[in-house]
Amino acid sequence: MKNSYWLIYGLMLLVARLGQLCFLYFMEMPTGGLIVDRWYRFFPHALVAEIGVVMALSLFGFLCTAFVRKELPRKIVAIAFVVVGVAHVWLNAGDDETMRWMGQHLSLSFFETYSNAASDLGLVGRIFVGGIDHFGVDIVWGLAVSAGLVLLYRKVFLSYCPNALSRRSMISMAVVTVLAVSGLTSRYWFAPSKMRWKRVAPFAWHVGEELAYKFSSLDRRPDYADGIALLGGDPKADYPFWHEVPGDSLNLKAFRNRPLDERPDIIFFTVETFRGWTADVRVEETCKRLPNICKLANSGLYFPNAHSVGYPSIEGFLGTMTGLWSHPRFTFLSDVPNTQMRALPDMLKDAGYHRMVLTATEPSFDNLNPWFERWFDYSEYKPENQHDVPIANRFRELYRERPGDKPLFFNWMSTSTHVPFTLPGEYGPTPKDPEVAYLRTMAYLDSAVGIVMDEIQKGPRANNTLIVLTGDHAFANKAQHEVPEFIGGAHDGYTWVPLIVAGPGIESGVVTVPVSHVDIGPTVLKYLGLELSNNFVGASLIEPAEKDSSSEETGFRVASCIPEVFSFRMDDATMRNRDYTFYVSMEDEKEWTVFGAMRTPDWDTSRPVEGFVTARRLTGVPAGAEETARKVRAAAFAWEHVVNLNKVMP
């Protein structure tokens, strides 16, 4: 046994991961059901890859101690590997939980984004309680394995001086070497698909790839111009998405000199986890559940097929506030925070707006504090207002206390529709069925929106207020996890949200073409009549309508030209237009698929959460699809290059 210490060490870590993988694949998800239906397509690949990692650790430990005879150095090395083993167990547990709750792996960018997440004790507490069974099993298992590693160190390792050349040691390490090499090369000989490998690859593999990327320089690819052109930028420009408008300062001065009645308020509702298919008010039952949101949608332009630039919430904030796409690999606002950009709140400050944000989730949870400080004159989070109705009532107070000599930009950010879909105690326990639980929080959210709308309508600025309502992102249901064509995490399950733009002069109607969060900034500027230099990558969703002969006022209608919609996440890209949706992998030029356009609620609307799976499947590949997929891939790399080189804005 003593001569097989490092083999035993590796086997203990393997047993730890075997148990954790069983918890991941065979215990229920927060949204109900298993993480995958066909576990046999994922579990074996994951286990073999984990064998490679733990046996590589074991082999490295053997090599570090094989020829060390002195007690102190051996003791230091042994302690170091006990610490590494314990860290390996707990980091993998965190990786598994992140996959269960957020559909992505734990990574360096995740740590950077959520390093202060525990400060929002209310939300963290609700998540922990909502998944107490899984968290509990993971914690007990982690403690047991950690104790086992310490016991192995104390009972075995310290009591012998290894003979690196003994026959038993050599056989033991030969076995470890074979297992390590086999596991670490399993990506190639086991040959899982690119999509499957992303899901099953060990935590250490993801971190290694991320470190390699951070320390590498990315050259401009030969297809850069094709990518920028598809995105709507100028491939010849040093800053391909910068729109220079002469006379910025004069335009701002003219706007500030307008009477207050000619400078509309802007009320921005950002709804947490607002699934577009569940919130589609074209469905009669949806309007019964969400009467206030339905009323708002009917009063202006309703875009049932809007999309966030990525996932999670911080990416929704990126798209709506900056008008930029997410980074294809990392979290933009956390990983590249020094990027030069001119966000919508920056422009509104220059235009004389008083900017406020009210949130039910502490901004440090998404590492938003620096941006709140930059983009708002007043931000507020209070632990006692951790649900939507309390912050709706708080809106009333702040709205009445607003400065009387400035127009208002107010961002109201909800949270109750965040998993695990809990409500205040007086509403009773959270239903076990995640579909029922989510629909209950949607109705609660709608009542909060009604409170805010009532306050606005009673105020003196009721007829001078632009209202924008959208979701920060969606959240994939169980059925969407099983779609083999869904590459990565930029598919509808994570990005599809509704969008409503309503205000005096805006014609009402339903616009079924896909639109994006990046179109919101240009739309607001168009409504205000402000022409400013900007880095927005989208386009205005409204344009001036012909003047009514009986009125001097200019109204707005839906824009005649709406560009393609892009989303990026986890090394993958999605492009949507009027006819098709393309899912493209950045890692493999052959890994792409295309779906048909989605215009009407043709999914199973009797199941508001689980009833939608994918957009319309095609019976054949449309002409030119392969070339389009190539260009979408080029677009992802081109945008990555622009952001990495800080070429968004001069």
Structural summary, described in words:
- This protein is of the alpha/beta class and 650 residues long.
- The chain has helices at 5-26, 43-65, 71-102, 108-113, 121-130, 132-155, 167-184, 186-189, 194-200, 203-214, 224-231, 248-256, 284-289, 291-298, 313-322, 332-335, 344-350, 369-375, 388-400, 434-458, 492-495, 520-528, 625-644, and strands at 265-271, 301-307, 354-359, 378-380, 408-413, 465-471, 496-502, 509-510, 515-516, 542-544, 556-558, 565-569, 572-576, 580-585, 592-596.
- It is 44% helix and 11% strand.
- The strands form 3 sheets. Strands 1, 2, 3, 4, 5, 6, 7, 8 and 9 form a 9-stranded mixed sheet that branches. A 4-stranded antiparallel sheet has the order 12-13-14-15, covered by helices on one side. It has a two-stranded antiparallel sheet with strand order 10-11.
- The longest helix is centred in the first third of the chain and has 32 residues, at 71-102.
- The termini are far apart.
